Task: structure prediction
Amino acid sequence: MTVPMMVALAITVFMIILIMIDRLPFGVPPLIACLLMVVFNVVPINVAFSGFANATIVMLASFMAVIAALQKTDLVSGFKRTISGLATKGGFRAYVLIIVFVMVGCSIFGTGSTAYYVLVIGLLSTLAYNKKLPPSKVLMPAGFAANHPMLPFNVALQYGIVVAVLEAAGVNERVDLVRFSLVNLVLSLGFLIWCLVAYRMLPDHPITDEERAADETTGGGRPAPRSGGIADAAATATATATVIAPALTRQQQLATYVSFVVAIAGMISYSYIGDGGYAITGLSVVILLLTRVLNFAEIRDAISQPIILMSAGVIGIAEALGATGLTQLVGETVAGMLGGNVSPFLLVFVFCVLTSVLATLTGSTIGTVYVFAPLAIATCVGLGLDPTAAAIAIVISGWNGHFLPIDGLPAMVMGVGKYSLVQFWKFTIPMYFIRLLALTAGALVLFPM
Result:
């Protein structure tokens, strides 16, 4: 191992530690690491900060503005009315319809949207106890459904990261957006199947403090599950959260929908016309500005969100690791340890488990993905395999941990639903493995290695 390799590795480990201790604002650690790469002469400054000129980052930033505009439309109000109506009817059919409806809503907001899962969980937390469909029976599956799009056309963030890590690893592979979306669909269907199976095992108890107190007073026979400090804090935050969408005129809402369609069309066309497709996505934001759906300050805030800084920064780190030859060295070493007869399914599945577990423990999905994806890509290249499926599965797996209540979504689910840890694990541990198995299978079928 050369000196530049060791320095690059040390800086990367330092960045990961900064992300894990969570003492700095989100997105700052990669920027510090990029600066250190330049100071210690690992790579020139244009390489270290190449992520900010990356076509994928331009597209992601633009799409963040489009999503911000969508949250001002009547979609949110319609969603709330539909969920409340279904929950009142009750029964298994209503249970299924609520989960599917939440998954359809996720198609619009995108995977991992904090605003969306807070909206879903906050809404479900207000439902009165109904013996036909207790809120505790639907809140957990519906809460996690907010992470699984049924119509996965809004996959800009994950798609962009896949393209970025492949490019950073020196793999010039055009990833077909339609097939990428189908991988997400396979994952979502695996999750939905587990929800159908788990219906009868989900607990039945009130979730509001008033109803739980009354239930205990009357001897309802349903013990009060305990929840940890993180979950309680999340429950309090969710219970007080409200989503207020500024009123838009009919013309403005139409302009927002047109902007969204243009943005999606731009992303799809990338596979055929290259960077021009991403430029089309950027131009879709102009529609929002001209129609005054978003003012310039709102657009500026949307395109400079911390997640954009994080993504742009770690691209530079990946470029630096690749430039020193460290990524290739690790890939060849791992490939040598695995041997030439390793199962592609096992290889991809193991990397998905590693990525999702560390993303859950550290709370840094993007950072963890950018660490493991290049290693997996290099390993595949070392074995003579097409790394596209591995890159896709690993990136998506970062958003599919959730077996511990130590991150935003699972903590809110456990806290608001008043689930015990045992009740939580009975649903989430099988869900975890089913999702990763479906994800691995879908990636390998649609992108053969």
In short: The mean pLDDT is 79. The chain has one domain: 3-446.
